[in-house]
């Protein structure tokens, strides 16, 4: 059985962040969640890689087992701050260098961390995510930003009452059916058992915090700086991802100097739990071919990998 350690680290402004490390291998992988998600989405990554690596999962401010202030306005939810929090998690688990995994908004956190600390990032695995301005591409709709802004404005006016309205809906039997109808998951690949922890966590999350974090992800934009990130990178796209369309992943793979692209046929935004075997196999190959675990002298030199 893999060794498991867990604990909390304190942010610069006094909030406690939860982390858990599974495995005791010489190399460290750190997983960065999507907005509104806790550590459960990484279960297949943890199961597969903790036999040979130390795999770390952690919760953003206001998520999972991290501190949850009564008023979300008390939290700095910006992407650069989350990336700095990631640095504190690295220090807490005792590592200076790691491969960073990101899913959805976690891709932005991982990319921002690579810009903040290039020496500490041995590689990037970016799954179904963007480098920024996420509401410009959400469902490829020009109305996405306006819709989220309006919903957030109403939620903030309602205060905590919005949670008393939303939680019964998310916990209701129809939530799973709605999730499939809006194509948030592939109904043929995703099991209800794997996705229900997300609905449970979302129901427990402050809706105002969720919407504020989505807006922060929309404010963030690392696209102009992708050329500065020379760590080897595997971009994993899903063919039927309506949240972060395929063309967006293709753009990221083009603009990152040392990146390669994997496209998952039929995958949705939840491909991480839909096609774990394919993902884990391809990441294993990426580690073997591209990641210099012994690197001690700075970023990988420039040069695009063969696709």
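Sequence proposed for the structure above (307 residues):
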């Amino acid at each position: 059985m893999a060794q498991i350690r867990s604990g909390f680290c304190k942010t610069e402004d006094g909030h406690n962040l939860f982390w858990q490390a599974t495995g005791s291998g010489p190399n460290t992988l750190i997983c960065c969640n999507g907005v509104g998600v806790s550590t459960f989405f990484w279960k297949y990554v943890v199961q597969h890689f903790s036999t040979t690596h130390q795999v770390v999962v952690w919760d953003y401010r206001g998520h999972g087992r991290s501190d949850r202030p009564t008023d979300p306005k008390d939290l700095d939810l910006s992407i650069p701050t989350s990336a700095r929090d990631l640095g504190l998690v690295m220090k807490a688990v005792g590592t200076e260098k790691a491969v960073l995994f990101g899913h959805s908004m976690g891709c932005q956190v991982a990319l921002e961390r690579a810009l903040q600390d290039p020496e500490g990032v041995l590689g990037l695995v970016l799954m179904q995510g963007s480098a920024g301005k996420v509401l410009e591409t959400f469902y490829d709709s020009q109305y996405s930003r306006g819709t989220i802004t309006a919903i957030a404005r109403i939620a903030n006016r309602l205060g905590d009452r919005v949670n008393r309205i939303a939680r019964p809906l998310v916990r209701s039997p129809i939530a799973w059916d709605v999730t499939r109808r809006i194509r948030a998951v592939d109904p043929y690949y995703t099991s209800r058992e794997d996705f229900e922890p997300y609905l449970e966590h979302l129901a427990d999350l402050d809706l105002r915090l969720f919407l504020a974090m989505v807006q922060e992800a929309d404010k963030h934009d690392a696209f102009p700086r992708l050329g500065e990130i020379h760590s080897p990178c595997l971009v994993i796209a899903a063919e039927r991802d309506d949240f972060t369309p395929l063309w967006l992943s293709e753009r990221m793979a083009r603009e990152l100097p040392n990146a390669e692209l994997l496209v998952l046929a039929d995958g949705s935004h939840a491909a991480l739990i839909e096609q774990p075997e394919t993902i884990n196999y391809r990441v294993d190959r990426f580690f073997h071919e591209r990641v210099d675990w012994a690197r001690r002298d700075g970023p990988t030199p420039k040069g695009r990998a063969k696709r």
